[in-house]
Amino acid sequence: MSYPGPSALTEENIRQAPKALLHDHLDGGLRPSTVLELAADCGYDELPADNPVALGTWFHEAADSGSLERYLETFAHTVAVMQTPDGLSRVARECAEDLAADGVVYAEVRFAPEQHLDAGLTLDEVVEHTLAGFEEGADNATAAGKPIRIVCLLTAMRHAARSREIAELTVRFRDRGVVGFDIAGAEAGYPPSRHLDAFEYMRTQNAHFTIHAGEAFGLPSIHEAIAFCGTDRLGHGVRIADDIVVGPDGTPTLGLLANYVRDKRIPLELCPSSNVQTGAVPSVAEHPFDLLARLRFRVTVNTDNRLMGDTSMSAEMLALVEAFGYGWSDLERFTINAMKSSFISFPERLQIIDDVIKPGFAVLLG
């Protein structure tokens, strides 16, 4: 009997692969057409372009500055049109549909409820409308033959003082589609240890959390997130490579922190294209993803912000394939890494790995 052999590693074929996504921002993944329509509905007149193509190009070019702080400024426009029940639920619904169409079978999508209160919604209402949108989008995706399990992380802004409140909100909704907590925003000057109260509360509640660390700021940010805050995962964490020295003969030597992260299997939510945009790395080809993967850190592939990065999970995986020569078995390993690291229950993780991810890749592996 003959077998067809592996499928070609094209973007279209990668789109057919079952993918797991841990780091995706709801307010960074809107369709440009939706931004325009919601802006018209709510009377927001500060958009920098008046058609979807030009607006999408503006977001990508404005985010492509090499500075995390300037990158974050683009979110003023997306957050502005996500202040109403209809705006929140629509963005969440379309997020689920778009991810499913790209072959994502499991997604943890995060957003900061505290940024969506301008029209008078309460924090609870913001979360309720967003979760309703995710549920509707997942139902639509299933009806289209592209089922997705989509859950939510609630983010507190590290420059604000509402992290304990958002942590409590996370626990309040943890049986309704919220699976974890996060802090995000500019790292420099806002260390994670400023939010110890929130992280201690999450631990007392046996609840999961991740922390944006090691993106624009270096090893001290990662050290604090782990040693002081007890994070389950590292949001980005790309700067852990600063603690690895590769000798002239190619032999790597890991520092104490890098060894600890690897030994403890702390997942790295790596976002290759975004890391280039914010200046964390010069290019995808120079990204430490491959070094970390070869050293068997628990690396995962993520989108971060699909609108600002003009990207998708398939595009991120293709970029890694082109940069480092990965094959289907590598992409499967990165996907299983992500699924193992998710914040849903252990039996649910195994079910998706065994019944969805492994069979899906088996087809592509031939």
Automatic annotation (TrEMBL):
One Pfam family linked to the record: A_deaminase
Cofactor binding description: Binds 1 zinc ion per subunit.
The cofactor named in the record is: Zn(2+)
- Where on the tree of life does the source sit, at the highest rank? Bacteria
Keyword line: Hydrolase, Metal-binding, Nucleotide metabolism, Zinc
Describe the task this protein carries out: Catalyzes the hydrolytic deamination of adenosine and 2-deoxyadenosine.
Report what the protein is called. Adenosine deaminase
* Species annotation: Antrihabitans cavernicola
Could you read off the lineage of the organism from its UniProt record?
Bacteria, Bacillati, Actinomycetota, Actinomycetes, Mycobacteriales
Which gene produces this protein? add
